[in-house]
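User: Hi! I have a protein structure encoded as tokens and I'd like to know what sequence might fold into it. I'm fairly new to this, so please keep things simple.
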């Protein structure tokens, strides 16, 4: 048991994205699928980190995470939500609220201010989108488990 913990620590230290890719694969391989682990792992990552996990997953398993989800998850609503979440990781909006700049002359201009406001709004919308997706997950699982 303790040895297993050490192995996991070493795996994570060497490649955090590889470790999470392995965790996702193990959750998808279980019968029934380990949805709790999938939700925690996928929702618990920012877009940049999730993109790295998806890339590492593709390298390790010769198929994309999207393809695996499409083939292994039978419940259409849950499949759609997972696909929507992992597709959000491909978002091309500026990272970490970086301001888009067209040179020194724009820093104090109304253009620079407008771009900063747009970036902030985009980040706020992404946060609301994540919360909305999580609420959908909870609703679907409540419906499935009550039947």
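Assistant: Happy to help. Inverse folding works backwards from shape to sequence: for each of the 147 positions I chose a residue that suits the local structure. Here it is:
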């Amino acid at each position: 048991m303790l040895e297993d913990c050490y192995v996991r620590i070493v795996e994570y230290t060497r490649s955090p994205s590889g470790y999470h890719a392995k965790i996702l694969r193990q959750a998808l391989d279980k019968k029934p699928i380990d949805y709790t682990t999938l939700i925690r792992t996928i929702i618990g990552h920012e877009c940049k980190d999730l993109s790295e996990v998806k890339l590492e997953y593709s390298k390790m398993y010769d198929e994309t995470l999207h393809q695996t989800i499409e083939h292994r998850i039978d419940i259409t609503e849950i499949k759609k939500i997972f696909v929507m979440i992992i597709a959000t990781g491909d978002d091309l909006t500026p990272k970490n609220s970086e301001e888009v700049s067209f040179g020194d002359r724009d820093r104090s201009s109304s253009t620079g201010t407008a771009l900063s406001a747009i970036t902030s709004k985009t980040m706020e919308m992404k946060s609301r989108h994540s919360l909305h997706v999580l609420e959908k997950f909870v609703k679907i699982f409540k419906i499935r488990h009550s039947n």
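A useful reference point when you look it over: The chain has seven helices and no strands. Feel free to ask if any position seems puzzling.
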